[in-house]
Amino acid sequence: MNAQEYYRRVIDRLKNCYQFSHYVIAAGQELVAEGYDPAFPAAAEPVNHLENLTLQRGFQVHIPIIGERSQSVLMPIDFEIFLAEENHKLYADPVAQKELFNHTLPVIRFLETLLRSRGMPYMLDYTPSGAHILFQNLLGYRATEELKTIGYLEEDLIKACNYIDPNDIRRWYGISPDAARVFSGLGKIAEYIALLTMEAFKDNASKGLLPVTISDIQDCCLNFDNSWCEGSPFMRSLRSPFSLHKKNQEKYGKQHQPPLVDVIGTYFDGRKAAEESNINVILECMWDLEKAANHAQGFSGFIPCSNETLIDFIGEYKSSDLYGFHQEFDRQEDIPRGSALEYARKEANIPEWTRNILHFPNPAALQPQKMIGLVYDFLIHAHWQPKHIGNVLRDIYQNPAFNWTQDFIKYPAEEKANFWARTYSAVALWQTNRLRV
Length: 437
Fold this sequence. Notes:
7-stranded mixed β-sheet; globular
C-alpha cells in the first residue's frame, strides 16, 4: 500500500480531526522546490485542500492549535524520546524502535492514568518517537473560562495576535484575547503535567532508564516538547492523527523504507475508552500502512473536547507550588529594556561559560541545554529573580547586533524570553527542592 492508498482509506477520519480548523499545514521536502523554508518546509492551505494534499500529494499534515475565528484551542501533551545524534535509531527498524519504546511506555501509562482517573477526555496518538495526547477546548465553556484566568499575555504577544493579514491564512482573523489567554493557560497546565511526571520518574536514571525532562536539555532523555505553547498561537500546529510521518525518509535517509504513520492508541470520552493496549499492535501499524488503515477504522478521528473535570484539575494546579511561582513571575516588575543585559554582564557570581553566552548569544541563547544552564546559574548561584532572567533573554533577542535569523515578530521576543525563563526556573527550583508539585 502506498501513501495515497493509505490516505484514501482514512480520509473521512482525517477530515474529522480538522473539525474546528479552516486551514491545514502540509509539510514535506517537496515544498523546498516551491520556495519554502528548507529548515521546515510547510504550506498553510484552506482545509478544503486536505484531500489534494493527502490523496494526491501524500504530504504529512498538521492541525493548527487555534481553531477558526478563535473558537477552540487544541491541547497537545507532546512527549518524545530524544537521543541527540542517535535519533536515527528510532527509525532503523521495528525491533530497535520497540526496545526504545520500553523507556516511554511507563510514562505514557502514567499520563493516561493521570487523565483517566479524573474523567478528563483525551485521544492518545502514538508517534514513532513517543506520543501526543490531545483534547480540544471550546471557547465559552466553563472549563475554558477557567483556563483564561491562569493565562498571561505580554504586550508584544497581544500585538502579534491582533495583527490581521489577508494574505496569510493563519492571520485572516487574528487571535482573540480570550483564545490567547486559553493558549497561555494550557501552557501552564502542560508545565504542571510535565513536572508531575518528572517527580514520578525522578529515579529513572538509577534504574537504567532515560530521564524525564522538559525539552531536550540532555543528550538522551524522554522529553515533554512544550515548544508548542511558546510563541504566537497562530504559528503553532501539531501533526494530525492519521498523518504520515516521513522523518525516516526526509531526515534520516531511509529512502528504502515506506513512510511511517502516527497511530491512535486510545479515545477516552470521560467515561469509557476505545483503546488498543498492545504496543506491539501499535508499532506494527506504524510500520505497515495497510495495517494502519485497518486499525484506523476503529476510531472516528474526532478529537474529544475537555469537560468540567478540567476545572478540578486546574484547582489541583492552583494548590501547587508551581501556581504560586507562576503568579509571582507574572507580577514581577520588569527591568527596563536594554538594562537587563548590561546588569547581567556585570554579575560576578556566574561562570565564564555563562558569561560567554551574554556576549555571543547566537545561537546559544536559543538552545535548550545552554538556556537552562544560563537560567540555573543566574537563579541558583547569582540569586536573580526569574522574571529578570527573562529580561536578559529579552534584551538579547531584541538586539539586532547579534544577527538573528529568528523572526521575533511572529515569535515575539518578550514572550519567548519569559516562557523559557519561567519554565527553566521552575525546573531549577524543583531540582533543588525549592518547588514541589
